[in-house]
Amino acid sequence: MQAIQKSNCYHDQGHKATCGYESTRYMVIFGLIQVIVSQIPDFPNMKWLSVVAAVMSFTYAIIGSALGLAKVIENGEIKGSITGLPSSTAAEKVWLVAQALGNIAFAFPFSLIFLEVQVLQFGFLH
C-alpha cells in the first residue's frame, strides 16, 4: 500500500517530491492478520488453501498480461526487442546476459518446489 501511495504521489507531484508515508499502520494491520490466521487449526494442511493460492497466482498472471496488452494497444506498438537492454560494450552485454541466465537458474528450483507442494497437498501420483 505504501508503494502505491508513493507511486501516486510521484505521478502527481514529480519524482523530486518528498513522498514519505508512515508504514507503522500497515505493519500493525499485517501483524493483526497474522495473529488471526495463526489461530486457525491445521492451517498448512488445508487443501482449499492451495486452490486459493493457485487461483490467485493465475489471477495475477492474467492481470499482468492484460495490463501489458493494454499498454501495447495504447502505444500502437511493442516497445522492446529480443536483444534486451542496449549496452555500450560487448563486455557489458555479456554481463547482462549472464545476469539474466543467473536469475533464471536461481528461479528454476522454485517451480519444482511448487510442484512438490501440490503433489503432497493433493496426493497426486501416490
Structure characterization notes:
- Residues 1-118 form the Amino acid transporter transmembrane domain.
- The chain crosses the membrane at residues 48-73, 94-115.
- This protein has 126 residues and is mainly α.
- It has helices at residues 2-13, 24-37, 47-75, 90-122.
- It folds into 3 domains: 1-39, no CATH class; 44-79; 83-126.
- Helix content is 70%, strand content 0%.
List the main descriptive attributes of the protein structure presented here.
extended, 126 residues, mainly alpha, 3 domains
Set down the secondary structure blueprint.
Elements: H1 2-13, H2 24-37, H3 47-75, H4 90-122
Quickly describe the structure.
By secondary structure, the protein is an all-alpha fold.
- Report the strand count: 0
Instruction: State the separation between the terminal residues, measured CA to CA.
Output: 42 Å
H-E string: HHHH
Percent of residues in beta strands: under 5%
Taking pLDDT < 50 over at least 5 consecutive residues as the criterion, the unreliable ranges are: none
Shape: extended
